[in-house]
Design brief:
It is built from eleven helices and twelve strands. The protein is α/β, with parallel strands linked by helices and 277 residues long. The strands form two sheets. Strands 2-1-3-5-6-4 form a six-stranded mixed beta sheet, with helices on both faces. Helix 1 links the parallel strand 1 and strand 2. Helix 1 crosses helix 10, helix 4 packs across helix 5 and helix 4 packs across helix 10. The longest helix has 16 residues. The protein is globular, with a radius of gyration of 18 Å. It binds NADP nicotinamide-adenine-dinucleotide phosphate. The site of NADP nicotinamide-adenine-dinucleotide phosphate (NAP) has 26 residues, from helix 5 and helix 10.
Length: 277
Amino acid sequence: MLRVGLIGDPVAHSRSPDMHNAAFAAAGIDARYALWPTPAADLAARIASLRESDVLGANVTIPHKLAVIDLLDALDDSARRVGAVNTIVNQDGALAGANTDAPGLAAALTEVGRGHVTRGIVLGAGGAARAAIVALADCAARAITVAARRLDHAEALVDEMQPRLPRVALDAGPLVTGGRLVSSLANADVVINATPIGMAHAPGSPLDAAQLAALPPHALVADLLTTPTALVTHARARGLAAMDGLPMLARQGALAWELWTGQPAPLDAMRHALGLS
Ligand code: NAP
């Protein structure tokens, strides 16, 4: 049996095994996707183990998406543009890094009719924020504001990403309740939450009622969290379009699955495993 898995710490909450094992079953491939919890001290050994001949590759999640880069043999264009790796492919013992988060999010935005936007806002400045910036750029955004609780993190991310995205005007702002975001919110087509705010360990909403009220009526609020969040609930209550992170999870997973198997992904089976129609 072939093997593939999720490398991160923690990973127990992940829905990726259900999704990928449904895909292997649908395609009749004798392979199993497992959770591979990996503290930082064990990362190098874990990555080395991916070179074994029965391993297709891996997904990578918090906190290793940047740290794995130095442990791989090659990066594809997607990983270079985002500056982070969420998918590793074992190519006869050589490890190639890719990023399917960005095209996965772009595909999820396209699914809901937001494949062409003008102005976006990304909340957070971590690994998922990088993918969100590239996804918005690939959806034709001309201006993107990155807002983070630590302004210096948002500024550093903008400084890093701007040279790779010359056709987009990136700027940084603070993510604070009632804060200066309001002026950018008034022009935003899409707001993407790439912080963990809304999960059990970080309850609440990254945007308060006044900030949501500042969004134009056509705006989409996209939360990358895959569990129900106050942000999505409050946005819908205000009459705004809103989506959670499950469509992105399905799309980034399908792209990763295709890299591992070389076959078109059974997207319907993967979506069904996540409870999507
Ligand atoms: P990360 O690298 O740890 O970055 C998280 C960002 O959120 C950082 O900017 C962090 O700021 C900020 N943050 C954390 N707690 C905060 C709080 N209480 N208030 C304000 N800001 C806070 O994580 P990530 O990899 O970007 O992932 C972010 C979320 O996206 C995760 O929950 C993950 O599950 C989700 N995600 C979903 C998908 C999908 O397919 N749907 C894919 C990837 C990620 P500091 O730097 O100040 O800590």
